[in-house]
Amino acid sequence: MSELELIRRMAESIQKRTAEYLSTHEDYDQILSRRPTDVTRRFDIVAEEALNDMIVEEGIVARVISEELGERVVPEGKEPGYTLVMDPIDGSTNLSMGIPYYCTSLALSNKVSGATFADITAGAVAAVWGKTFYASKNNGAFYDGERLATKEHPEKPRYVLYSFGVGPVPDNIIPLVEERCLVRTMGSIALDMCYVAKGSLDAIIDSRNRISGYDIMAAALILKEAGGILTDYSGRDLSALSVKASGISVVGAANSTLHSTILKRLH
Fold first, then answer.
1. Which residue ranges make up each domain of the chain?
2. CATH T-level topology, domain 160-266
3. What is the pLDDT of residues 205-264, one digit of tens each?
4. CATH superfamily name and code, 3-148
């Protein structure tokens, strides 16, 4: 069993079990706790518990870093062999409002302590519509069996698509948006990033300083393995960042030319 098969199967099972809960419980979007910038809903905990169950069922031991339940070892009291980084539901506001654009994001590293973005060896983003983006380090990225490869599009001077996170659009980028871009804000940073890898979006900018490692860990590997570029807002590579990093802003693009153009406008 490969790590990629494992992580893909787990992400898809978590998404499926969450969907089953949603279809049978009317209280799925009940708010259980509040944080300064987010809330925890019942379906978030259902997904977290599904991950715990999957770890036991797969017969592995993992250090888990996730959005809702934080850092833990599952099963408790044993020596972990993996680090798993999960956002149980990325796009939870969409889910709570009945908008079918959300996913489960799960990434794996063999390093059980002090793992960084560079240490992620497999990642999967399982979408609500039943298909999955996935990648393993140095082995490419895929969507439902189709290999992903980003491209240069010099013939698209008017159709470059940008997806912004919620928040103020940076002043320096407004002229570029007005001149040549169609803007889409979809509500799931992981899926948006995967769609850059797929070629449906050309670039993504999230300027909120609110992204955490678990939000984008799997999608960052998928974009990189498809040939895309992802950095922080200053153009610095994310490889050295801890999987527990937070307060990140990102610039991602399908190719280095477009990425450089965005950075020049930003700075």
1. 3-148, 160-266
2. D-Maltodextrin-Binding Protein; domain 2 (3.40.190)
3. 988 888 999 999 999 999 999 999 999 989 999 999 999 999 999 999 999 988 998 888
4. Fructose-1,6-Bisphosphatase, subunit A, domain 1 (3.30.540.10)
Rounded Cα distance between 15 and 144, Å, is 15
Identify which of 195, 191, 238, 233 has the alpha carbon closest to the alpha carbon of residue 213.
Answer: 238
Q: How far is C-alpha 209 from the chain's CA centre?
A: 15
**Tens of pLDDT, residues 24-64:** 988 887 877 777 667 788 889 999 999 999 999 999 999 99
**pTM, two decimal places:** 0.91
Q: What is the pLDDT of residues 156-213, one digit of tens each?
A: 554 456 666 656 666 776 666 666 666 777 889 999 999 999 999 889 998 888 899 9
- The closest of 153, 158, 152, 141 to 197, measured between CA atoms, is 141
